[in-house]
Amino acid sequence: MNDRRLLKVSKYLSRHLRHEPERIGLTLDAAGWTEIGALLEAAAAHGFPIGRDELDKVVTTNDKQRFAIDGERIRANQGHSVAVDLALPTATPPAYLFHGTVAAHLAAIRREGLRPMNRHDVHLSPDRETATRVGARRGRPIVLSVDAGAMHADGHTFRRSANGVWLTRAVPPRYLRLAN
């Protein structure tokens, strides 16, 4: 299986495990899990057959570890726009976290802070390199430093997904700085 196919399968899984499971007749449980057999059957029935070997390879080799398998179930680790409760425990964040964006969003971020938009939470990276890669998906990246330690001290809650992405409801502008 080539890298192009892996990317297509990953995007297909993201779309249907995070945003539109009903589009292919898939049902996610309250925690975002679905049976692997049901996923493979639904994908095939809707013109995008995925082999179990392909699925396993995408899950194990995805650089962002977007998906998790538990026995015969699969789910996305975070990033849902559909109602799920990932049951991630609250955690104490490091002093600083990072967020990658592009210049077109900077004025709004400075005014309103980071908001989840159509997702459940704001996604924050543990390091500048990851945030740079995230921002680069939409153009020339700008990396923001988030004073997560101060946010936490002020009562904001954080959770950490299985793939190391930090999640919080929103980041007010006062906790943001350009990371140089």
From TrEMBL:
It holds the Pfam family PTS_2-RNA. GO terms for molecular function: transferase activity. Its EC number is 2.7.1.-. It is an enzyme of class 2 (transferase). Keywords: NAD, Transferase. Gene3D superfamilies: 3.20.170.30, RNA 2'-phosphotransferase, Tpt1/KptA family, N-terminal domain (1.10.10.970). Removes the 2'-phosphate from RNA via an intermediate in which the phosphate is ADP-ribosylated by NAD followed by a presumed transesterification to release the RNA and generate ADP-ribose 1''-2''-cyclic phosphate (APPR>P). May function as an ADP-ribosylase. Belongs to the KptA/TPT1 family. This is Probable RNA 2'-phosphotransferase. The lineage of its organism: Bacteria, Bacillati, Actinomycetota, Actinomycetes, Kitasatosporales.
